[in-house]
Amino acid sequence: MSDVVMRYADRLLPRYTSYPTAPHFKAEIGPRDYAAWLAALPDGETLSLYFHVPFCRSMCWYCGCHTTVTRRDEPIARYLRALNAEIDLIAGYLRGKRTVSHIHFGGGTPTLMRPEQFLDLMAHVRERFSLAPDAEIAIEIDPRTLTSEMCAALAEGGVTRASLGVQSFDSRVQTAINRVQTFEQTRDAAHNLRRAGILALNMDLLYGLPDQTVLSCIETAQKVLELAPDRLAVFGYAHVPGFKPHQRKIADASLPDGETRHMQAEYIAAVLQTAGYQRIGLDHYARPSDPLAVAARTGTLHRNFQGYTTDDASALIGLGASSIGRVPGGFVQNAVTIGDYLKAIESGSPATIKGYALSQEDRLRAAIIERVMCDYTVDLETVCKRFDVSPDEVLARSTPMLDTLVADGIAERSRYTIRVQNRARPLVRAVAAAFDQYLGQGQGQGQKQGQPRHARAV
Questions:
Q1: Residue 450: helix, strand or coil by DSSP?
Q2: If we measure between CA atoms, which residue out of 138, 154, 157 comes closest to residue 202?
Q3: Nearest to 167 by CA among 189, 150, 143, 147
Q4: Residue 443 has what pLDDT?
Q5: Do 394 and 385 contact (CB within 8 A), yes or no?
């Protein structure tokens, strides 16, 4: 890694799965605002749904998600009753039976539901919403707890894509992150899903983990290729023990430095690209025929809270504790703790605790940042025309970081076109940040002074 790139590698920057980012959401936005925004959705607009299921059987120490450990099934059953009630609440604010083009189940471990519970939930979704004939229904899976019975239920419920968590096959790393998972467990999960008829498989890898080496990253990537996934997500571990106390079990001294993290990411990329996968955006890879790769080539790729996606629905409805939704009016987030979420839903109210009302300037900057994150380039003139704004005004109001990035060779500018240099693509978030008017402002709700709230650039 060059000295210039190294200067940016350890900077703490948003992942830009939304803009403005979640630390800027405000408590002034509540259930009434959300209800009004839902009621105002234009007729005929399609929706996507995200279900957060925040339960696991054990805690992975690297985890940055909102989840809790339970050995009992009753808390999951009560939570699912609340999810069904929330579906009714949200559908009640909408005019008519809306069409849904994408559904995503995240966690936690959504497949801790019993098979019949999952089928009941999907039946309720179909009762209150109309699923598009080509709707994608995706679910995140921990291979260690997946049963063949659940695979059959997922297929019966209409799941079209499954994402298997792998992270690393290095036994030393697995011990250090409290997630021991054999290759055989992962292979069997993939086999059972495909046998049930769920053929589109994603797999998640992590770099920057404790005791992880470049060699073990290469070996893990090579082993994953034996399972022939359609897509891979390769994320950098975000060490934020101030926010996630369980991460304190990971010693800082065991973590690789910025240069090693960069090498790990690039060697994984080399393995996957040599095998024919197309590199997409910051951290995704897909077979050239996969819809995600097609979207990347045609400039129709999008980015939301699940990362890179083909989802172009005008509204993303988040259901469950801590879930975040996006509608044309703005962003909303549900109560983070399961207890607070249940209390709100069981009282008959949306669980919205904070959000953000979007201005036209926010929408413009969000569009610019999305194109940078998805395409490594943005034509400001084209984007600004949609908002009836001069690109010169945008450049005048961009952060001084943009000029520095160009001077350092991270980005190049040709009049109104900004492009990330090929060698600096791992730093795409730094280029996106040049258009973020909120970066560095305030601490955000619940933010303690001095705590990092974003991940390292590489």
A1: coil
A2: 138
A3: 143
A4: 42
A5: no
Question: Is the preceding peptide bond at 108 cis, omega within 30 degrees of 0?
Answer: yes
Largest CA distance in the chain: 60
At a CB cut-off of 8 Å and minimum separation 6, what does 402 contact?
395, 411, 413, 418, 431, 434, 435
Element of type H or E holding 433: helix 428-433
Mean pLDDT value of segment 81-86: 98
Give the torsion sign (CA, 162, 92, 305, 394): positive
Could you read off the pLDDT of 163-172 as tens digits, one per residue?
999 999 999 9
Does residue 1 surpass a pLDDT of 50? no
Q: Can you tell me the distance from the alpha carbon of 62 to that of 9, in angstroms, rounded to the nearest whole number?
A: 20
Pairwise CA distance, residues 31 & 439, whole Å: 27
Instruction: Look at the block and give the residue holding tokens 């467990």.
Output: 185
Instruction: State yes or no: pLDDT of 373 exceeds 90.
Output: yes
pLDDT tens, position by position, 209-235 = 999 999 999 999 999 999 999 999 999
Q: Assess contact for 217 and 267: CB atoms under 8 A.
A: yes
Percent helix, strand and coil across the chain, each rounded to 5?
Answer: 40, 20, 35
